Amino acid sequence: MKITVDEEKCCGAGQCVLIAPEVFDQREEDGIVVLLDAEPADGHHTAVREAASVCPAAAIRLSEST
Amino acid sequence: MTTPSSVVVAGASAAGLGTAEALRRKGYRGRLTVLGAEPHPPYDRPPLSKQVLAGTWTPERARLRTREALDALDAEFLLGDPAVALDVAARTVRTASGRTVHGGAVVIATGLRPRTLPGPDGLAGVHVLRSLDDARALRAELRSAERAVVVGDGVLGAEIAATAHTMGVAVTLVGPQPAPMARQLGPTVAELLAALHREHGVRLRLGAAVDALTGHGGRVDGVRLGDGEVLPAEVVVVAVGAVPDTAWLTGSGLTLDDGVVCDAYCRAADGIYAAGDVARWHHPGLGEPLRLENRTNAVEQSAAVAGNILGEARPYAPIPYFWTDQFDARIHVHGRPLPGAEMTVVDGAVADRRFVAQYRHRGRVVAVLGWNMPKQARAHRQALLAEPMDAFAVPS
Ligand SMILES: Cc1cc2nc3c(=O)[nH]c(=O)nc-3n(C[C@H](O)[C@H](O)[C@H](O)COP(=O)(O)OP(=O)(O)OC[C@H]3O[C@@H](n4cnc5c(N)ncnc54)[C@H](O)[C@@H]3O)c2cc1C
Ligand code: SF4
After folding, report:
1. Domains along chain A?
2. Ligand 2 center to residue A26 CA distance, Å?
3. Which among A65, B80, B123, B278 could bridge B39 via Cys, Cβ 3.0 to 4.6 Å?
4. Which residues sit opposite B230 in a β-bridge?
5. Which residues does the UniProt record annotate as the domain 4Fe-4S ferredoxin-type (chain A) (predicted)?
């Protein structure tokens, strides 16, 4: 799994951080998403898929080729 | 409870797509059909009053998912063909083109329809903003307008006023409240928002009632207020709220009362569920029926519905949350700033326009608001989680 985030779309809601704190964080100054791990281990995949689906700005994209 | 072999979802936007995605994520392999009234693939609404209206994003950028991601869902999207009737007992949905689609479970996610003002129909230059087509039409007219009046001082009216102003249009925002979004933000923060709009040059006509739209030759030319004053405008945007899009369910036997009335599991009848802006469900923590009109609720509630279709039997009890962007302000609100709640700044400073405020009502924390401090606001949301849920109930 490979994750990309679109900082310009992100509204800083932080839903992703609530769901997958090992993979996503937010910048202190404006709350924009910080990707901690672009290719997380299998154990995180379910949470990452949920974060991508729940993100209210559709700012998280996944490519699941691996 | 057995898992249904097929699910049909009416409404192909945030809540409809959210239902389909959550079902697949939870391992559902059955047939999935998503019906959409609009011809467009699922797109996001928050950018419509912000980046899409301003023109900084092309409409394509507001699409919720790529073609590939939609294909991977393995759901059939029947777009441009609205549902027109539901047979609750048979669990079939009939569409405008004459299709009949059956589902072991049916999910209603048809959202809202904007309210309009009484007055002559079909006056050119009068707009509402709910759909992508609305946003395109409004943008096209604002580009050549000198003066616009936005009627409605809620979140949508305030956002449209800010965006139209940045497009170089002279904007007047009209509404009955003492400050824009006073109900959603409380008086102090609403005043700050009013100041922000004034500084940028938006004219505010607060505490004003709109009497009628005025027109000439079939085109709007102004807005007449209760006191007789006429605000001239080439474009008028009506943002006075929206009503649940449930006309197609009239006569279905479902209880409709400002939304599809559901139990704590978002179930309107056996095998029939509702999610998103259209759903009025019994919030188990609050002990009262609630209908939320915000983006995170649409996906969270649809995930709850998906779980309940698959037999999770979990009541849906979210902490309400929404955000809004206006000029350089990003405001995030967790919980409900109840009328009469006392506000304290717990981080940052109002003077810096970077702060987190906590709202207390009867000694309990009922809301946390961040103004340009989203991460910190989310951290303070913990204080809300510590409260019993009924703290957020609106006092009667
Ligand atoms: C301009 C705008 C800006 C917003 N900004 C914010 C924001 O900044 N933050 C925030 O939290 N929220 C915001 N919101 C609210 C948020 O977009 C909504 O809460 C969310 O879209 C609700 O999703 P939904 O799927 O329930 O309903 P909708 O998005 O309304 O989708 C319902 C869909 O059902 C379709 N439909 C209707 N009738 C039928 C039928 N009979 N058959 C089939 N399909 C049908 C409609 O065409 C529509 O596509 C904004 C809303 C708007 C309009
Ligand atoms: S959930 Fe989406 S919008 Fe919110 S912080 Fe994460 S990426 Fe940004």
Report:
1. 2-63 (3.30.70.20)
2. 8
3. B80
4. B224
5. 1-29
Distance CA B239, CA B235 (A): 13
Hey, where are the domains in chain B? 6-113+243-309, 116-240, 328-391
Q: Is the pLDDT of residue A45 over 60?
A: yes
For B94-108, the pLDDT digits (tens) are 999 999 999 999 999
Per-residue pLDDT, B395: 64
CB contact under 8 A, B375 and A57: no
Report pLDDT digits (tens) over B23-34: 999 999 999 999
What lies within 8 Å, CB to CB, of B166 at 6+ separation is B54, B327
Domains B116-240 and B328-391 share a fold: no
Give the pLDDT confidence of B44-77 residue by residue, as tens digits. 999 999 999 999 999 999 999 999 999 999 999 9
**Closest alpha carbon within chain A to B376:** A28
Report CA(B366)–ligand 2 centroid distance (Å). 23
Q: Which helix (H) or strand (E) holds A39?
A: none
| Residue with more model confidence, B228 or B385 | B228
Strand partners, B30: none
Cα–Cα distance, B209 to B227 (Å, whole number): 8
pLDDT tens digit string along B136-167? 999 999 999 999 999 999 999 999 999 999 99
- Angle at alpha carbon of residue B352, lines to B347 and B353, rounded to 5°: 80
Containing H/E element for A40?
none
pTM value is: 0.96
B299 interaction partners in chain A (CB closer than 8 Å): 53-54, 56
What mean pLDDT do residues A47-54 have?
A: 95
Q: Cβ(B279)–Cβ(B291) under 8 Å?
A: yes
Instruction: Tally A–B CB contacts below 8 A.
Output: 69
Instruction: Report yes or no for ipTM above 0.90.
Output: yes
> How far away, in angstroms, is A17 Cα from ligand 2 center?
8
* Confidence (pLDDT) at B396: 52
- Quote the percentage of chain B above a pLDDT of 70: 98
- Best to test chain B binding among A3, A17, A53 (most B CBs inside 10 Å): A53
Query: Is there a contact between A10 and A57 (Cβ–Cβ < 8 Å)?
Result: yes
In the CATH hierarchy, which fold is given to the domain comprising B6-113+243-309? Answer: FAD/NAD(P)-binding domain (3.50.50)
Which homologous superfamily does the CATH classification assign to the domain defined by B116-240? FAD/NAD(P)-binding domain (3.50.50.60)
